Structures are given as structure tokens and as C-alpha cells.
Amino acid sequence: MASIFHLNLSKDLSLILDDADDYNAIIQVGENQNIKEFHTHSVILRARSPYFKAALSANWITKKNNMIMFSKPNITPTVFYMILKYVYTGELDLIEQSGENILNLLIASDELLLDEELFKHVQDYLIEKQTKWVHKNFVLVLNTVFGLDSCKKLQGYCLESICENPFPFFSSKIFPSINKKILFDLLKRDDLQIDEITIWDCLIEWGIEQTPDLGNNKAKWNKNNHKALKKTLNQFIPLIRYVGISRADFFDKVRPYKTIIPYHIYEEIEEFYYKDSSPKTTILPPRICSTFEIGKIESNIIKPILAKIIINWIDNKDTMYIRTRNDPSYRLKLIYRGSRNGISNESFRKKCKGRVASLVLIKVKDSNKVFGGYSSIGVCSLGNDFDDDLIRHGFQFYNSSDNFIFSFEDSEDTQNMKISRVVSNSHAILDHHASGFNFGRSSLCMINQSLYLTNYIGNYERNLDTNKIYTIEEIETYFVYQ
């Protein structure tokens, strides 16, 4: 087996970088007062970067006094030195670097087609080690990376973080300068946790800033001014969830902008407010959010948006109900995960026993489907460990009027969910030694690695698929408490 001595190689190459006497390429980077020349070796650059392999090829290079001359004004000297250090030695030290330098390094490494491992490391470093800086500079970060497919992870992190705590972002002074594609992606999200009227106010402010020669004095606006604002906001107006705006706020803040709202949308809004009719096809349903936390979930099976739907179901609210501060909040404590604790009756019953309100989530194999059940009385070992009836007969039914079982088409499906509530209260839970859990005599039942769904017996509403057996891929149980 060959011996490897990378350490000395890295040191020697570092000396070549810092004190080159046989270089053949001068790279000038930066612009204005921040310009610097680096003496480099084209053979090393071309070997480490497909970008330089093409840019420094014989067909493209410019020479002066037999020296290759190359310019990259869009990369700062600080960032380019980090790149050269990595290219020559494989070393990268970000500890003392500013968040802006690290962000620029991310963009430069993507442009120069450097190793994927470098790009991944820098992107993860921003998310994990520069969290505070990223949160303070969401607009800068998003404007910089938005549209780059390679930066999807950072984009997603920013958007999800904004949705969890959007007020600082929407109230920032530089919000009106945000790229319209970023704003569009934010407004179309269901999990944006801010009052809808605040979103409307900020959208109007953004639209005014983005419309040339409009001005803030609305009293002086003419027909052409309104027409210009309507054109600016045309793609955003349908994304507002008007059902989340009170009648008073609609009258005071939305109605004055009637002329910028398409006629068919405004007609449906008025019908909703004045006739209490349900939203039809034009108006989107309310966001699944609140201005306060109702229970973060550390699930590998569902996204937080589905947890909020389940919380509404626990409170017998409509799926799209917008919770207020007067509604009870819930916490979900993970107490069992199949991939961690083992998927078996024994491991499930050991972790999930007792009369504690419980939520069970199941991801099945060969499908995106998610199944689950909620029981206000717990799901197994509800009596004492030495319950005489359970020992004698091997099973015991328990009573609950609050239980329900459900399904989602995938981990973030908010359109095709199904729920079946208990109808035979005395048979809400079957505590059976041969199963992990059993909602209503196999309406939803775990037997080791199998999930039985026979939702036709009548103990629960017959809304889910019936008489099917799935293989469990992942399963989680949470204690639910206020």
C-alpha cells in the first residue's frame, strides 16, 4: 500500500504561493481602490479548476512580456487569496473571516467551478457558524444567492428562518429593495408567520418604492399612478390571503387600493366579507401560521406546517384555522423514533406507555404517504403494568371522544389530507399485547414493522384507505401537552 505524506506537500506548496519566483500568470483582482495582483502558476490553477482550465488555455490567454495576464474585478483580494490558499494547499480557515467575505467566497467558488466539497463546506459554514450574521443580513444574502441552483440550501434556510420570525425582515429599512423573485417566493409560502395585514402594508410599501416617479403622497396620485402601481404588484396581489384580514383592516387599508386589485379578485373578496361566504377558486386559504409559537416539531416525517394542521384538529378547528393568542398553544415532545429506538412492538410499548395525550406519525415504504393518529388518553399500556384484565385476556378497550386518525399524501401536503374521528368512543384504543398501538380494533394498527389500515369496522369514520397493509419505514411518537 502506498504511503501518503500530504502535510509536507501542503507546506511546500504554501511556500510556492507566498513567495513564487517561477510564476507564469499574473491575476489581478478587485476594483477601484481595492486592487491586488497575485503571482500564480497556471498549471496549478488549471489542474484544480475547470474554469481556469478553459480561461488560461492557449486559445484564450493574453500575454505581456511572456507572462499570462488575467483579470477578475468581481472578486476581492481577500476572497481570492482564500481561493488560492485552497487551490495550492487544500487549506481553508474561515474563523477570522467576516460573514460578507465568506458569502463572497461561496459565490466565487461556484463561479470558478472549484471542488464541490469546498462549496458545500462554505455554504454549511454560513448556515451553522455565521447564523447571527445571516439573520441580520437576509436581504443581502438572498439578493446575492437567489437564482443560483447551487445555493438552494442557503436560500431555503433563509426563507424558512424568515417565515419563523418574519417581523425583523419585513420591518427592515432595506426591505423595499428586495428582489421581486425573493418576495414572490416568500408571499406564496403557507408558513409565513406574520399578520396578513402587515404583509399587505409591506407589499404596498415595496410596490411604491419599485414604481418609478410614484411618490408617497397618495393624495396626488392620478389614474396613471394607480395603473403603474397595479402593474408593479400584478403578480403579488393574488398571493395575499385576504381571509386572514379583518373587516376593519380591509375597509381601512385594502379598500383604498381597490383600483390595483383585479376586478374578479375584488368581487370575491367583497363577497367573502359581506356575505360570509367561503373562499372560492380565486382567494387563497389562510396561511397555516400564527404570530406565536404553537409547538415546534423535530420530525423526520412531516414538515412543521402539518404539525399546525394537526394542532387545529386536536382543538376541533378547521384545517386552515388561523390561531390567535387566545387559543391554547401546544408543545410536542419526541419520546420515540423507530430509526433510533427500533421498530417493534416491544420498543414502541416500552417508550410510549401511559395515559398521556400522544401523537403517532408513520412514514411507509415505497410511498410518500404519511399516516398518523392522535389519542388524548395515550396509545398503549394505559392501565397499570399489572392490569388484571390485560394479563388475563391479552387486550383491553379504552374510551375517548377526542381521538382521530389521519393521512397526508406527503410530508408537506396541505390539500389532500384525510381525517377520521372516533365514532365508537368505547372502542377508541385497543391496548393489546400483540401490537404496538391499535386505534379502534385495527382502524390504524402497528404490529412490529407492519402498519395495518382497516378503517371499515366502524369505530372511526371511514375516510381513510381501507384494508391495506404497509411496511413501516419510520415512526415517531410525541407527548402532546400545553
From TrEMBL:
<dbReference type="InterPro" id="IPR000210">
    <property type="entry name" value="BTB/POZ_dom"/>
</dbReference>
<dbReference type="GO" id="GO:0005737">
    <property type="term" value="C:cytoplasm"/>
</dbReference>
<dbReference type="Pfam" id="PF07534">
    <property type="entry name" value="TLD"/>
</dbReference>
<dbReference type="InterPro" id="IPR006571">
    <property type="entry name" value="TLDc_dom"/>
</dbReference>
<protein>
    <recommendedName>
        <fullName>Serine-enriched protein</fullName>
    </recommendedName>
</protein>
<dbReference type="Pfam" id="PF00651">
    <property type="entry name" value="BTB"/>
</dbReference>
<feature type="domain" description="TLDc">
    <location>
        <begin position="300"/>
        <end position="481"/>
    </location>
</feature>
<dbReference type="InterPro" id="IPR052407">
    <property type="entry name" value="BTB_POZ_domain_cont_9"/>
</dbReference>
<feature type="domain" description="BTB">
    <location>
        <begin position="23"/>
        <end position="96"/>
    </location>
</feature>
<dbReference type="InterPro" id="IPR011333">
    <property type="entry name" value="SKP1/BTB/POZ_sf"/>
</dbReference>
